[in-house]
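Internal tracking record. Fields below are filled automatically when a chain is submitted to the structure queue. Please do not edit lines marked as system-generated. If the sequence contains nonstandard residues, flag them in the REMARKS field before resubmitting.
Queue: standard
Priority: normal
Entity type: single polypeptide chain
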Amino acid sequence: MVINTNTTAQVAATNLQHSQSMLAKSLARLSSGSKIVEPSDDAAGQAVSSRLDSTIDRTAAARSNVGNAISFIQTQDGYMKKIGKALNRMSELTIMAQDVTKTDADRILYNSEFRTLGEYVTEASGKSFNGVPLFSATALSVTTDGDGSAFSMNGIDLTAAEYTTATGSTIDSVANSQTALTNVNAAITKLSEDRATIGAYQARLTHTADQLAVTRENLMAASSRIKDVDMAEESTEYAKQNILVQSGTAMLAQANVLPQSVLRLLQN
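SYSTEM-GENERATED OUTPUT FOLLOWS
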């Protein structure tokens, strides 16, 4: 029996240190909710989850872009719906101006309303959404995923010939009313086509937004499986390490007492 080197105490101390380290790590996991407290816990998992988290953030940003594009389209359609009503009224006025029981003085009154509605359509062509023109021949490119893919939407141009010809018409005579009717009908047809176009864009972007939401959910689930701690399992591990620390502390105390038995030999 030796007293200079207490091997039993050293082994107990080493085991206790390991148990304390595991207990601290378990406590950190439970308090943070993450099983990767340090990169060394799962180096590959840390790298994969970091990439997934970045993709999740970019996907959320893309979904925001798509949502804003949908709002842009809805604003466009709101104006176009009112423009449609204005054009319908203008076409009605062209027919009323062709009434043989009306005088040119009456037609001048009809023409005043017709021109006012035309000015409304012209004014609407200059409206914008957050500084971006609502009605322009320029196409808009909408980012549709986290990789930067884009969907191009052709611009709706209210300065197209069909619109400007209709709004530039007059109904101050029967002949002009007949011409204006043709022009306004052409504008109504063009408006119907444009509304159908943006309706298709909205449907496309709505599906894209739904798909991005599902993609983000799946990516979050994948990232969670890598880095999120299983609270039930980790609670069991914490209890285990806590018991080992307590028992290791007790055994280390016993191991430090063992050399005192040498005193009995000396007493004899």
